[in-house]
Fold this sequence. Notes:
Elements: H1 2-22, H2 29-57, H3 65-87, H4 93-109, H5 124-158, H6 164-168, H7 172-205, H8 213-234, H9 239-259
Helix pairs in contact: 1-2, 1-4, 2-3, 3-4, 3-5, 5-7, 5-9, 7-8, 8-9
Amino acid sequence: MAHIFHVLTIALYAAATAAYLACLFCSSDTIILWGRRILAGGCFAHILSTIHLVSLKRHLPLTEMQESLSFLALLLVVFFLFFERKYRVATLGSFITPLALLMLIVSGGLHGEARELPPILQSNWFWFHTMLAFMSYAAFAIACGVAVIYLLQRHFLKKKNLGPLFRRLPSLETLDEISYRALSAGFPLLTAAIISGAIWSEQAAGSYWTWDPKQTWSFVTWLVYAALLHGRLTAGWRGRRAAILSIIGFIAVLVTFLGVKHGISW
């Protein structure tokens, strides 16, 4: 059953990716509508797959890379569908849907170990911390995608190359607003994730902060986004500077998520 849901989700995400990429070349309301419907169907299948996995393991699928990539892809799609519905930015799907599809394909190629959940991971603080962290990652991925599109749109304006693609991309004002909304959602989620992670660390290792690689990079990521939001609110940072910092912040997210492991032995 889990395999069927996984294959169905990949197929629907692939079809949605094709539709959203087509939006870059053909401004068609029909393609956008079907892309949204197909992606929503894939999201529903993904949710069913996740529920099935939870019923088998009796816990959220967040303890192994295979599970984590799939769950993060699900959150990414959910966040995108929200922003796409609110701001009608279908072209953002040309960045988000391929990323979600890639994460799901990679997760399917990994093999998790069937093992009993260690006592250290049975803490409610661990689940709370991980859920908040993954939600912040999804919000920051949206902000990064918007930043890439912003820089592309700005390049077209600077070069006065106002071709078909330029007209299909959202305005700089709309992109800036979406970026701010995504960052405003992601930053408090990351802050709460770090705090709850510190509490979990104290329960597991007897210390709130041990400066292990995962904690260190989480703090670095927090500093990047704190500087970005502070600059936006106090110094009026907009445009290219904010977009570049948003991309740098997401690179730090990827390093935190994929590049380092937690010092506490799971």
